Amino acid sequence: MTGQPRHFLDLKDFSLPTLRTILDLAHALKTALRSGERPDLLRDKVLAMIFERQSTRTRVSFDVGMRQLGGQTLMLTGQEMQLAREETIEDTARVMSRYVDAIMIRILSHDDLTDLASASSVPVINGLTRRSHPCQVMADIMTFEENAGPLQGRKVAWIGDSNNVLASWVHAAGLFGARLSIACPKQYWPDEGLLSDIAEVGDTVSLDTDPVAAIADADLVLTDTWVSMGDTDEGERRRILKPYQVNPRLMGHAAPDALFMHCLPAHRGDEVTDEVIDGPQSVVWDEAENRMHVQKAILCWAFGIESI
Q: Do the bridges between strand 102-106 and strand 179-183 make them parallel or antiparallel, or are there none, so unpaired?
């Protein structure tokens, strides 16, 4: 590759036409796969996957997706690399760029992600940071489009605490023209950076503490686990967030044909009940599958391939 690499770090870095190109390619790749076609668009390319924390969906979807495109993967953890011995993230990027064709990293520090990308001469993809989770939200949008049509003008409700998935949904709402209604307890309110993003998006995003008001007539209901890796106040979080559980009573305030999504893993009985996640409005398994299809499209886009 020549010129600057095509990184995929945050949705707010992109224009709507670029994200639309990626989503259209994801839909096409999924259709092709279901027809028995596996175009080897990334034949002989090697994707390095670096994980600071545990992963199921991100690891498997990128690994299998890259193989379906004819490429290969290399799985690494921070603890088995020289990162664990204080080699800088920039030096790691410079070395890895000499070996592999692209890097996907799942790391908590968003600053480390951007430092890695700034020093890398190959594409870097954000597999998750504490600040954002763009691949997940692209899969969410793909899933909504499959089941309910365009996102523009539709109401999306986020129920629970503020986190990286919500941050990427704020970016997506501004780009795709959705109305995002957030219900979050004051104790777990968005930080200053996300509040600034919300303000920048404008009136299409609302923020309150009332889950019933947020979910009213929503076309899509989203939640996430209340206790994430590294949280130490598990009991307190459950107590404060209990009124934000997505159960049949709360779901009943959404539009009759509303979809329910969860990025998984779900803590059943906490943020969502079995009746909802296993119910007819839930599309969480399509959502999980679409991580692979949309990430295949992101990988292709990173290498300059925008259609099949």
A: unpaired
Reply yes or no on whether 106 is catalytic. Answer: yes
Question: Would you tell me which CATH number, out of the four given (3.40.50.1370, 3.20.20.70, 3.50.30.30, 1.10.3080.10), belongs to the domain 136-284?
Answer: 3.40.50.1370
Q: Could you say which of 10, 63, 112, 224 is catalytic? A: 224
Residue 295 annotated among the catalytic residues of the structure: no
Domain ranges within the chain, ordered by starting residue: 11-133+288-302, 136-284
Q: Which of 7, 63, 101, 106 is catalytic?
A: 106
9-55: pLDDT as tens digits? 999 999 999 999 999 999 999 999 999 999 999 999 999 999 998 89
159 in Cβ contact with 250 (< 8 Å): yes
Query: Which of the residues 7, 131, 237, 291 is marked catalytic?
Result: 291
Mean pLDDT over the full length of the chain: 96
Active site residue 291: yes
Kind and range of the H or E element at 58?
helix 57-68
Give the residue carrying structure tokens 């959705």. 178
Write down the architecture of domain 11-133+288-302 according to CATH. Answer: 3-Layer(aba) Sandwich (3.40)
Other Cβ atoms closer than 10 A to 148: 16
pLDDT of residue 1 exceeding 50, the answer is: no
Please give the model's pTM, rounded to 2 decimal places.
Answer: 0.96
